[in-house]
Protein: OsmC-like protein
Organism: Halobacillus andaensis
Amino acid sequence: MDFYIKEGGVRTSFDYGQLEISGDEAFGFRPFQLMVASVAGCSIGVYRKILDKQRINYEDIKVTADVTRNADEANRIERIHLHFVVKGYRLNQDKLLKNLEVSSKNCSMVQSVKGSIEIEETLECIELSK
């Protein structure tokens, strides 16, 4: 990966497109936002693969990330709480929760920050009716 200085931040390019990074939201994504997005995106992606592989039906999955930062230590990320909301018909909450634990162990981003950032994952099931 190559990164280039630009006014107000840094720029890099990937096959998918260009990414602007800056501590000022007016010039790009803030580094902490990218870190949280990486953890959340990896987590939901691995979770989805596990559910799909087990042929568990769901209509939608949403993850809300709540971040705790420490202003006294360079505003570092101390904790990320990922709240998974799974919507579907005849959901088995115990099975969904067990799969969430498996996904955490198989998410490269969660494993990369283990010991540095506390990751908490919670699950909410919303039963849809026909």
User: Anything to note?
Assistant: The two ends are 48 Å apart (CA to CA). The beta strands are 3-6, 9-13, 18-21, 60-70, 76-88, 118-127. The chain has three helices and six strands. The chain has one domain: 31-127.
